[in-house]
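Before any further analysis, we paired sequence with structure tokens, yielding the entry below:
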Amino acid sequence: MAQKADALISRMRDRMGVEPDDYSFNGVLLAWSRTSGGMSSARHCESILRSMRNPTNVSWSTVINAYTHAGGALEAAGLLKEMEDRARDSARHQSSNHAANTLSIVVYNNVIHAWSRNADPDASKYAEAILKRLESGSSTLNLPKPDVVSYRLVLNAIEYSKDPDKAERAKSVLDRFIASIPTVSDPNTINTQLKDNMQGAYNSVLAACAYTPSNAGDQARNNAARILVETLRDLNNSKDVTLGPNQESFSIFMQGCTHLFRPGSSDRALLMKSALQECCENGFLTEKIWDKFCNASSEEDVQSFLSGIEKGDGSFAALPCDWSRNVAP
């Protein structure tokens, strides 16, 4: 399909002497951006872009999208910078009342997404730097405000990074995300999609804490442990009564307690037992969560938790079904 589109452009130029319009070029770019050719296809998209007399923002964003899906974060970031430079140049020739920038938040999110998938050790920092720039604004560009996707992508990048301070950075991004949500008189009117993203954002912070590197140092690991507990507490205390920990939240929290607290410590035992109790009360117990609790707890603590259960032999199958009533398939 992409090759056929290329051939059509060539015939228009070479045989008919007609310069293809923006719509034609953008169609070709879109075709190439959707191929499975990886970086080769993305670079071909860019070569087409460079051959256009007056590429539109759609043209540029399509090529950025191609690089994003091909894993070319550096290339995508470079094209974004060019787009911004072009917007500044355009603004200089327009009145001060004219919007200096027409770039879409989708373009910025594509570049953030590219960095979130990149193996560069500093990739999450590059992603967060873009977010901070969008939050702060610019004196020379009318930058779009970050949206839900922007925050989720940055949190995803931080969550999977190996930075020792990932827990603190993730918590900071979460706080800014929550602060960016408009206040509503009735929290229950927040749409389901936003609630799902809020839930996912909290879980990303829990994961950033739980998977703080073992060699991060005592201070970073202590901070991660503190943020782990605070984040689960904040999720429980959300003003939106329909928002709270789910099975993933409890599973990650258990993992974090195991990883961040000293084996056999009273703090770890108390936190895990308290979280498990809440998990069961809310109907989110899974076999994975139960196994994590059993593997990290003493036999005495496990038996103490099961003390009021008939036929409590310690197996997941013997536990009350009500403890798992809200588990997602």
User: Anything to note?
Assistant: The chain has a mean pLDDT of 87. Residues 18 and 206 are 57 Å apart (CA to CA). The radius of gyration is 25 Å.
